[in-house]
Amino acid sequence: MEQVTFDSLPLSSGTLQAIADMGFTLATPIQSQAIPLAIQGLDVLGQAQTGTGKTAAFGIPIVEAIDSNSRETQALVLCPTRELAAQIAEEIKKIAKYEPNLNVVAIYGGDSYERQLRELKRGAQVVIGTPGRVIDHLERGTLKTDAIRIAVLDEADEMLNMGFLEDMEKILGGLPEDRQTMLFSATMPKPILELTKKFLHEPAHVKIERTTLTASSIAQYYFTVKSNQKVELMARLIEKYDVKLAITFCNTKRMVDELVAELHVKGVQAEGLHGDMSQSQRTSVMSRFRNGITHILVATDVAARGIDVNDVDAVFNYDIPNDIEQYVHRIGRTGRAGKTGISFSFITPRELGKLREIERFTKSRVEKGEIPMPQEIVQLRRERFAGKVKAAVAEGGLENFSALINQLVAEGYSAEDLAAALAKMAAGEINRPFGELDIITDRSSQQASRFGRGDGFSDNSRRDGRGNGRSERGSSYGRREESSRGGYQRAGNDKMIRLFVGLGRNEKISKGDILGAIANETGINGKNIGSIEVFDKFSFVEIREQDVQMVMRVMGKRKIKGKYPNMEIAD
What we know:
Layout: H1 13-21, H2 29-39, E1 44-47, H3 54-65, E2 75-78, H4 82-95, E3 104-107, H5 113-122, E4 126-129, H6 131-140, E5 150-154, H7 156-161, H8 165-173, E6 180-185, H9 190-199, E7 204-207, E8 218-224, H10 230-240, E9 246-249, H11 253-265, E10 270-273, H12 279-290, E11 296-299, H13 301-304, E12 314-317, H14 324-331, E13 341-347, H15 352-362, E14 367-368, H16 374-395, H17 399-410, H18 415-425, H19 427-430, E15 438-439, H20 442-451, E16 457-458, E17 461-463, E18 469-471, E19 481-482, E20 488-490, E21 494-501, H21 511-522, E22 529-534, E23 539-544, H22 548-555, E24 567-569
Parallel strand pairs: 1-6, 1-7, 2-4, 2-5, 3-4, 5-6, 8-13, 8-14, 9-11, 9-12, 10-11, 12-13
Antiparallel strand pairs: 15-16, 17-18, 19-20, 20-21, 21-23, 21-24, 22-23
Helix pairs in contact: 2-3, 3-4, 6-8, 8-9, 11-21, 14-15, 21-22
């Protein structure tokens, strides 16, 4: 179907002006089809992927239908997560910009009942909420449904996946029968189709299909990498592509916490977002991310529902999603609002088959990415440093500094030497060291999948004529060898000592907790901390021999997640 302009739709002048203020003139396909049907009062069954403009597809008809002179609740929108509820509420408020008496309230778990009660009592013509909290208010009698004229289920398949089917049926079953109902879902599994038969009356079916499920504005790359080297690869890609704002997806809450801790050690500003956080914490994290204070947001799929930030440069699939459709949802967070984006997917050798499934499902090609070499990153650092110098010269205001240089020249130093010295002072950042990172070819990926091991070799190494991996950077670059006296031999002949830590999974301790605590409390660079193993009741961590006594002394007085770690040298 051809897209239409908003001013060709039967909308009020106030709504048209609000849409224009938002910077939109052309309706998306789902909006072009659904809005005219919804304004007629028909039930609508909409099938479209995330990022296609579904919120406005039902939000605009809601604003058009509401009697803002009445304080009764007239529209109810159900959605799976609190983030999405907050996003929908903000979107509808923008659409209702020129309806000053129209109140929109979001209600969801983890937020203050008092605030919600206060706003509902004040009069909320439009209520957006998660099923659990909506039922709470219905049972308390604080949400009245007698006057509801429109009910919307957004991302119905996701609510199904989260176990909200009975809640959806209970809520819809208690609404006035003469209401208008709209249901939007990316997929239509059997339970959702049964739900539509039960609660929608002769719905108009709007289905938006695309030749590919991923936007052409998003460049997609994958990297076959060992699990323990993903952080190093991510740090290099952030530098290479000069990523300012990115969302990184992990499959578990524990992995979110561990990754955030490891990124902090590498000097990357990152914060996590997952279901174990309070609503105030989540709101604070999202505020810092939207304002660019936090550059990397690390999140689980459920927690990321409803995140709508137009300036996301890149998406990292740190873990390949368990559900193939989640891949579409994830990378759709970048390349929005007419901008280009990029996605990076990290796979282990065993996951190559899953990547091919994603390509078949999305009908798009995920290209094999090139791992950035250290010399390439160093060159980029130099170029960016030179650019900053040029910008400072162009900006002017260097008089005081020029006087200092002239003074030093008068003391016998050449201007060239002074400039070189200043550049050298910045070399700490330019020559910041790199961690270990192996190249794994597709062939070796397939072999690893068959035999359970990888035959890759280091990214700065090459094969000699006898097929042996020989490192160009030498044996002193972060490699470990068994020591005859126990422990491990590291770069610079650093012997690694294994410490016992009396905390484990039973205390909800992760590798990231141990790494972050030691690095933060002792000041040891995370790169100088060896492997970490976490078991149910205890853990092990490798520390350089020269740091062992200091680590045991400092950590003996510090807590990890509220408990003393009880560190000892392991036998």
